[in-house]
Each structure stands twice: as C-alpha cells, then as structure tokens.
Amino acid sequence: MRILHVSDCFLPRLGGIEVQVDELSRAQLAADHDVSIATATPCRTALPEDEAFAAGSPFAAGRPCAGRPPVDRLVAPMPWELPVGRSLRPVLEERKPDVVHVHAGAASPFAWRAVPQARRAAVPVVLTVHSLWGPVSRSVYRGLFASWARTAGGLVVTAVSEAAAAPIRQVVGGRLPVLVVANGIDTSRWHDFTHAPTRLRTAGDALHVVAVGRLAPRKEPMNLLRLLRDVGSVVPIRATIVGDGPARTRMERYLRRHGMSGWVRLTGRLDRSAVRVVLAQADVFVAPAARESFGLAALEARLAGLPVIAQTGSGVADFVESGREGLLGRTFPEMAAALLRLADDHRLRNRIAAHNRATEPMRCTWPAVLEAFDGCYELASAKTPLAHL
User: Where is the Glycosyltransferase subfamily 4-like N-terminal domain positioned along the sequence (predicted)?
Assistant: First the structure.
C-alpha cells in the first residue's frame, strides 16, 4: 500500500508527534508498504542519522536514508518558521498514495488543510489526533467536522488514547468513526533492560523519583515541583527531571527559593540512551500532566520496570492500571499520597516493578499498531466515494 504521512512538524525538529511519525513510517516501510512523508518543517541542521534529508528534490525533499522513507518539505516562508506549508496537491499527484495519514495536534494548520485536499482528490484519509482537546479546541473543530461528516466517505478518525478520543467523540457526535490506536514503541529495545536487577535501596536511602518531558506549562512542571516539595518534607527523596523548555528558568528559581536545588536535578534535554541510564537508576516515575494525550515517556518508564504515578484521566491510564503498573490519582494531593505510599511500601513498589518488567503493553507494540492502522486504512478505503471533481 502507498501511504503518505502528513505532519506539520517532522525531523530534525524533535517532539512527540515527530518521533512517532518517524518510527511509524519506518515500521510500515519494514512491513513492505510504500511510505512517504509530507511536512511543513524545513530541513536546517539535520540530525546525524537524517543527514540525507538535506539533499534537494522538486519538493525540497531529502533522499531517504536506509530504512527511512522520502520526505517532501512543503515549506512556506513564514515568520518564526510557522508550519503553515504549501499545497499538498503536487505531492498527491506525484506520489499517488492509496491513503493519506494525517497527524494533527490541537493547532496544526498544514495537517488540517491536508484533509480536504486529499478528499477532493478522492484519496482515503485517516486522521490521527495526537492531542487532548480542551473547550477551545472542541469549539473550533465542531464546525469543521460537521462539514466533513456531510460527505463522510473516505475519512476515519483515530486518537492515541481513550482520554484523547473522548472530546473528539463529543465533537463528532457519532457522524464519523473515532477509533483508538495507541502510539507504538519497539519493546525489543527494552528486553535486556527489563531483565536487569532491580536497584537495591538500603534503609534511609532516598527514593529516586524521575520525570521526563518538555518543560512547558501544559506539562505542569511547577505542580511537579510542588508535589516533590510536599513529599520531600515527609520522606527522604531525590529527583531527576529530564527535559527543557520555557518553564525551566521559573523552575530553577523555585528550586532555589525553596532550598530544593540540592536534591532536585534538572538535566536539560537528553537523548534516548541517556534517558535509559536515568531510568535504570530510578525507583519511581511521575507523569504530572492532567492533559497528557498519551505519555510516551511514561510508557518507556513502565517498560523499564518503574512504577508510574499519573493522573487518572490522562492518556497514561490506557497502559497504567492503578495498583498494577503504578498508582493513579485524580488530584495532585492524591498523586502526592501515591508517591508517599510507594516510598513507604517497598513490597508494593517491588511487586509493581516486577510486573512491569515481566509484561508488555500489547496494544503499544508495533505489530499491534500496524495491524490497527491497516484496519483503519481498509475502513477508509472501503468508504471512499468516486471522485466527482
């Protein structure tokens, strides 16, 4: 099958959607699909493994590296390199995809415009929403989905978690299928890791708490620091927070003001191998954001064998059941209580860690994700009307 992925942002820019589109496209390529990518992201300074993207083509695309699909960069000159992008029509004519797989966040102008462009070309569309919509997003997209639903053939909507699917279903109102297909992860990378011995803690040893994610307001990093401060006033803990972003300066001020700099470390952004080293030295992982649509970092921590503490209504709840893979709380006081419980109850913590090491989140493995998307492509193709333009 010829699959064209469309995403506002892609490598060399790094983020959750960018990484997921890259890994999904490579997994499909390995499964003998004919895969390509269209993005509004320019190729400035490429990552080492992506340096072949820098070569030119009629669409400012790069030649694919081994195991990577070709990329068409439809960049429009915009201030701050905003990913508005140019028309997808030339790529549709050149690539002739059997299906267009659009990847959208809450605000993704290039991706959202790709949906009607593909449908006018009578190409089936699978639209994956990677974000968790709030009231503003629901209001903005209600009219858009209503217009699409009038000619619903050829369009299937997916979300990355049940939490992300719920507000979309409210907007769609049953007029379009909204399916849940989890983000994928290569669990084989964690096989050696999960058989490593559990880090042994001696009496009085500080519990090592880890969080990984972008330091942006929607990830609630300040609430994370308040949680750590509350728990750290009761039991000995130390924390490592991996990531970077606009909230970092404010976080550093908070740590200095409350005398936490000695036991809370901000590492900045680390590559995946370095993150794995941090997880190997940790006892518990905390995912603080209530509006987490999926939580790939939490999934990696779960695969590393760490008990995960997260919000009940977030996407993390799709692969973390409270008392089984971690502990969930509806509020930050409940999450603080959960962290205190794991600090005090080493048997519970070790039981959860052993379970996480011994089991895989099957819905998140690439074979399961590829099979689910193949079904979505077939469903969209079966409902595609004949071109009438």
Answer: 15-189
Of 276, 284, 317, 120, the closest CA to residue 190 belongs to 276
**Top-level class of domain 187-361:** alpha beta
Query: Residue 141 in contact with residue 129, Cβ under 8 Å?
Result: no
Give the span between the Cα atoms of 71 and 57, in whole angstroms. Answer: 10
Max Cα–Cα distance, the chain, nearest Å: 73
pLDDT string in tens for the chain (389-residue length): 999 999 998 988 777 899 899 999 999 999 999 999 999 998 764 443 333 333 333 334 444 555 689 999 998 877 666 777 889 999 999 999 999 999 998 888 999 999 999 999 999 999 999 999 988 888 888 877 777 766 556 899 999 999 999 999 999 888 888 999 999 999 988 866 654 545 555 556 899 999 999 999 999 999 999 999 999 999 999 999 999 999 999 999 999 999 999 999 999 999 888 999 999 999 999 999 999 999 999 999 999 999 999 999 999 999 999 999 999 999 999 999 999 999 999 999 999 999 999 999 999 999 999 999 999 999 999 865 544 32
- Could you report how far apart the first and last alpha carbons of the chain are, in Å? 24
| Cα(300)–Cα(296) distance, integer angstroms | 6
Amino acid at 84: V
CATH number assigned to the domain with residue range 2-184+365-382, chosen from the 4 options 3.40.50.2000, 3.40.50.970, 3.30.450.40, 3.40.640.10 = 3.40.50.2000
The closest alpha carbon to 28, from 69, 73, 72, 71, belongs to 69
Entry pTM: 0.86
Is there a cis peptide before residue 12, judged by omega within 30 degrees of 0? yes
